[in-house]
Amino acid sequence: MRLSRYFLPVLKENPSEAQIVSHRLMLRAGMIKQSSAGIYSWLPLGFKVLRKVENIVHEEQQRAGHMPMLMPTIQSADLWRESGRYDAYGAEMLRFKDRHDRDMLFTPTAEELITDIFRAHVGSYKDLPLTMYQIQWKFRDEIRPRFGVMRGREFFMKDGYNFDLTKEDALHAYNRHLVSYLRTYERMGLQAIPMRADSGPIGGDDTHEFLVLAETGESEVFYDSAVTDLTFGDREIDYDDHAQCAGVMEEFTNLYARTDETHDEALFNAIPEERRRVARGIEVGQIFYFGTKYSDALNAVVQGPDGKQVPVHMGSHGIGVSRLLGAIIEASHDDKGIIWPEGVTPYHCGIVNLKQGDAEADGACDALYQSLTALGLEPLYDDRNERAGGKFATMDLIGLPWRITVGPRGLKNGVVELTSRRTGQSEELPPEEAVKRVAGIYAAL
Ligand code: ATP
Ligand code: MG
Q1: Alpha carbon distance, N-terminus to C-terminus of the chain
Q2: What is the distance in A from the centroid of ligand 2 to the CA of 441?
């Protein structure tokens, strides 16, 4: 993409309505624009990152054997009356009527609808296990939408649902989700710590939230600092192997880590004092096992191996896809702007032309652009007639992890400059070497 043709409405001033850095930077970098309280348009740069995050979620869900599907945003109230949640959900549910005076709502989550699909089509234990998920817009009429996409009213969420014959199988689905979530967040450059939590209106006993530690987080968390040393990394995992998934669950949840809702002072005090931490975190996902709560209410039964009809064991599993953009920025920025982790960066590499209109500099930039593109990378070329300082400021603000700077002086010596956004360190090298270096970094992901 050439910046001269791009829609990137960066703001020079700090927007006064933004209280936290991720909100400020998303507005300043021209990623989002508020349309009404807690509801945003995603401008090209923001949309590009949203898609990258969404794609990682898709890839990791499908790697775990979960099937993508899509359910409507607008639902009839009937199913929600059947489950009893139409009244229980309260003011957070956006309700309205259609022209025939039927009660409708904008989906805040989709346990009822998926269970209805399941009961219409699945009748035998032979069709289990089954896990389906969607990545779809949700609406919750939050009392205090704030912090930009972090607590929106309309937000993009992955919600997955497992159907299993037994509790043991459903707990395997729970563990499988935990593993897939660890991989998902790490690919985004994030550490998200599973913490024992409270189930809220979804219901059920077993639940973990995934929290990204950040001062601006809305949850208070208590943990053993040893949990921050755990990483999943690139280890092989067989998602069908119950023992292997249970082992990962055990490894990542046996140290003390809880949100304030389930915090236990006595257990916390049993941690060696130098490892006790009280901090704040951003909830970027949650997994639930809730047994037969919805299958009982909605009569989702299958015929078991002994011929008897039994309710299925279920769980649901969410990832805050749009909130993740805020969480990533909270975890990765400096005073100049965003620093995208390579896994989610909107463009792989920036190209800054220090002397636009100079035939040699223009030619070198075009050649770099073509070489990077030919390798399957997406560069963002700042080809505007702006002074160098302004170009650098824009690149730093929008946070591409790598920048190649091209100027007549360097070209005389046959070199360009490759700069890491994270460390600020630059290196001079021939253009083709710079391309190789950048390609190598992304190939290793
Ligand atoms: P919270 O406690 O933050 O209100 P929740 O526990 O009600 O969230 P879930 O039902 O667990 O939310 O939804 C799954 C994920 O969707 C959450 O982990 C979070 O990352 C994201 N999410 C929930 N509410 C919002 C919101 N208002 N704006 C953006 N993302 C949200
Ligand atoms: Mg939650």
Answers
A1: 22
A2: 34
Distance 288 CA to ligand 2 centre (A): 9
Output the pTM of the full model.
Answer: 0.97
Which ligand 1 atom minimizes the distance to the CA of 210?
A: 18
> Among all ligands shown, which has an atom nearest to the Cα of 109?
1
Q: What are the structure tokens assigned to 290, written together?
A: 């809730």
Report CA(285)–ligand 2 centroid distance (Å).
6
Give the containing element (helix H, strand E) for 371. Answer: helix 359-374
* Separation of alpha carbons 200 and 292, rounded Å: 16
Rounded mean pLDDT, 42-56? 98
pLDDT band at 198 (very low <50, low <70, confident <90, very high): confident
For residue 219, what are the CA distances in angstroms to 189, 262, 281, 284, 318? 21, 12, 5, 11, 17
Phi first, then psi: give them for residue 143, nearest 5 degrees: -65, -35
φ/ψ of 370, rounded to 5, equals -70, -40
Q: Is the CB of 371 under 6 A from ligand 1?
A: no
Close Cβ partners of 1 (under 8 Å, ≥ 6 residues apart): 347, 378, 379, 380, 381
- Binning the chain into helix, strand and coil, the percentages to the nearest 5 are 40, 30, 35
Name residues with Cβ closer than 5 Å to ligand 2, which is an ion: 286
Domain boundaries, the chain: 16-338, 349-443
**H or E element: which one contains 176?**
helix 167-187
The pLDDT assigned to 205 comes to 61
CA–CA distance, 94 with 291 (Å, rounded to integer): 27
Which protein residue's CA is at the shortest distance from atom 19 of ligand 1? 320
Task: Please state whether beta strands 32-36 and 349-353 pair in parallel, antiparallel, or not at all (unpaired).
Answer: unpaired
Q: Indicate if ligand 1 lies below 6 Å from the C-beta of 282.
A: no
Distance 203 CA to ligand 2 centre (A): 11
Give the pLDDT mean for 199-213: 79
Dist. CA 152 → ligand 1 center (Å): 9
pLDDT of residue 201: 60
Q: Which atom of ligand 1 lies at the shortest distance from residue 218's CA?
A: 3
Fold topology of 16-338: BirA Bifunctional Protein; domain 2 (3.30.930)
Beta bridge partners of 36: 39
- List, for residues 118-139, the tens digit of each pLDDT value: 999 999 999 999 999 999 999 9
Q: In which residue are the tokens 């990533």 written?
A: 328
**Contact 283 CB / ligand 1 (< 6 Å):** yes
Nearest-CA residue for ligand 1 atom 13 is 318
Give the pLDDT confidence of 264-275 residue by residue, as tens digits: 999 999 999 999
**Is 349-443 in CATH node 3.40.50.800?**
yes
